[in-house]
Amino acid sequence: MALIKEQINILIVDDEENIVEFIKMGLEAEGFKVYAAYDGNDAVYLAREVNPQIIILDIMIPGMNGYEVCSEVKKTIKTSIIMLTARDEIDDRVRGLDLGADDYMVKPFSFKELLARINARLRNSFPELTNVINIGDFRIDDGAHEISFENKLLVLSPTEYNLLRYLLLNNGLALSKQTIIENIWGYDFNGEQNIVEVYIRYLREKIGDKEHSIIRTVRGVGYRMLVV
Length: 228
Prior knowledge:
This protein is α/β, with parallel strands linked by helices and 228 residues long. It has eight helices and 13 strands.
């Protein structure tokens, strides 16, 4: 995803300096403005000072723990929180999400996966900072109202553009035909549901998806875009 990165602040909160440096180095190389805190109290103070769009927050930190930081920060700041932990317990995940966390990663993790999750959070929570979105081999340029695939511009009708964009922004999620109709054709659409099948076929032809491995059919549900 191409973003106005100089406007994006990311706060890393972890008491392990090597992890902080590893993440900080990678994010700065991507063009983000990165801040770091090593305990919960400093994290809350710094969050209020710099208003980060993303907080990468370890649970087991000195002072206020990650859960407390998450709860406190979410009261006053619009931010997306990705919680980090060495513990892979369902209860821990549920507790964090209930307190307002937006995503969850278990250590150890790859930087590539973390970056993908950051981009997803920015795309969903701060669309105003997005001008061009890269998802796998697809490139969405909302300004030009164009989508490219494998560096080739796709010739799309307005409906095809809107449908492909919607599928891409919901990459990985199974979407029912009704949901697709409501978002692309509108709630007052009175036509047949097979309109979705028709346009999915158009899109598959245009991106060469003969095996249906990119736009997948989910039996009994609808369709799922799967781009990695």
